[in-house]
Amino acid sequence: MTYTTAVPRNGYRAALIHWIADFKPSLYVTFVFNSPISPRSAEDRLNAFLARMDRTLLGPKWLEKPDDRARFIGFVEKAETNIHVHAVFDLPTKQDRAFAEAAPAIWKKLAPAGNLDIQAVTYAEGVADYITKEIRPESSAKMLLPRQDCSGFTVA
Questions:
Q1: By C-alpha distance, which of 86, 23, 63, 91 is closest to 147?
Q2: Integer Cα distance of 83 and 100 in angstroms
Q3: 54-75 pLDDT, tens digit each
Q4: Which among 30, 8, 25, 38 is positioned nearest to 141, based on CA atoms?
Q5: Structural contact between residues 17 and 132, judged by C-beta atoms closer than 8 angstroms
Q6: How far apart are CA 56 and CA 100, in angstroms?
Q7: Helices marked H in the chain — which ranges?
Q8: Backbone angles phi, psi at 33, to 5 degrees
Q9: How many CA atoms lie within 13 Å of 22's alpha carbon, on the beta-carbon side?
Q10: How far apart are the first and last CA of the chain?
Q11: Is 136 helix (H, G, I), strand (E, B) or coil?
């Protein structure tokens, strides 16, 4: 589906909030770089983070376990000034604590000046409302999804 500026922002955002809530995320993470970086480089670092996290949680044969890999929905914010990424995660292996313990060291290697804020999701709609606050139909390129094919992860 292609979205255009003719799509009303409120309807578009409401659909995203509903979609994120249906995703049933367990973790909410803000990835901060604290240094100049392009949106493409930010996306590449996020994907490198995910690969390292999957290896940490799933072991050296993590690529052979696509159904167990971390799934996420993320949004790039303030790309021109203080770029950061808000993301929600669903970990099929339910290793939220291990994720939270390993994440800071992994992120520090990828974004030495950066930091993370990791929180448990207790109200998915509230988190979804916050992370979509700057999204517009014409800026969906700022939405990030995992590169791998995840079973059970569908976009209607």
A1: 63
A2: 22
A3: 999 999 999 999 999 999 999 8
A4: 38
A5: yes
A6: 12
A7: 9-23, 39-58, 96-110, 124-131
A8: -100, -35
A9: 11
A10: 9
A11: coil
Q: What is the dihedral of CA 87, 50, 145, 76, to 10 degrees?
A: 50
Query: pLDDT per residue over 107-121, tens digit each?
Result: 999 999 999 999 999
Sign of the dihedral defined by the CA atoms of residues 57, 60, 62, 64, in that order: negative
When pLDDT is averaged across residues 79-90 and rounded to a whole number, the result is: 88
d(CA 6, CA 109): 42
- Structural domains in the chain, CATH included, are 26-144 (3.30.70.1910)
pLDDT interval class at 39 (50, 70, 90): confident
Q: Give strand pairing partners of 72.
A: 89
Rounded CA separation 127/24 (Å): 11
